[in-house]
Amino acid sequence: MYGDHDNTVLDELVSHRHVVEILDLLSESGCTTALLARLVRAQGTDLASALRLIAAHGLLTGGDHGSWDDPLTGRGPIRLTERGEAVAQVLSNPQRRP
C-alpha cells in the first residue's frame, strides 16, 4: 500500500476535514453515523462528505445501504475494511508514513 497512488490517496484523506478523526474512531470499533456525528461534532453534510470520501477508497464497510450517496440516517454500524485499518494505522503514526 505504499505506491505513488497510495501516497496521493493518503494526502487526499489527510486534507479533508474530519477524515483522520473518523478513521481513528472507527479503528477502535464500529460506529453508527449518529454516534460518529456526536463524537466528531460534524454537521450532517460534512460527515456525509467525509464518509463518502473514505468509502470511495474502499476503506469502509457496513451500514444497511448499498450506496454511500444515500442518506446516512438509519445505517447500521460502519466499520473499517482491512485496507481501512491499514490506512488508519499509517495516518495515526506519521513515522510509518512513507
Report what the structure shows.
The chain is mainly alpha-helical. Helix content is 55%, strand content 6%. The protein has 5 helices and 2 strands, in the order ααααββα. It has helices at residues 4-15, 19-28, 33-40, 44-56, 82-92; strands spanning 60-62, 78-80. A two-stranded antiparallel ribbon has the order 1-2. The longest helix has 13 residues, at 44-56. The protein is globular and about 35 Å long. The N and C termini lie close together (10 Å).
Key terms:
98 residues; two-stranded antiparallel ribbon; 2 strands; mainly alpha; single chain
Classification by helices and strands: mainly alpha
Order of neighbouring strands in the sheet with most strands? 1-2
Low-confidence stretches: none
Separation of termini?
Answer: 10 Å
Count of DSSP H/I helices:
5
| Major pleated sheet | 2 strands, antiparallel
Got a strand count? 2
User: Could you tell me the radius of gyration in angstroms?
Assistant: 13 Å
Write the element-wise H/E pattern from the N-terminal end onward. Answer: HHHHEEH
Q: Which percent range fits the helix content?
A: 55-70%
Overall morphology = globular
User: What does the average pLDDT come to?
Assistant: 80
Give the strand content: 5-15%
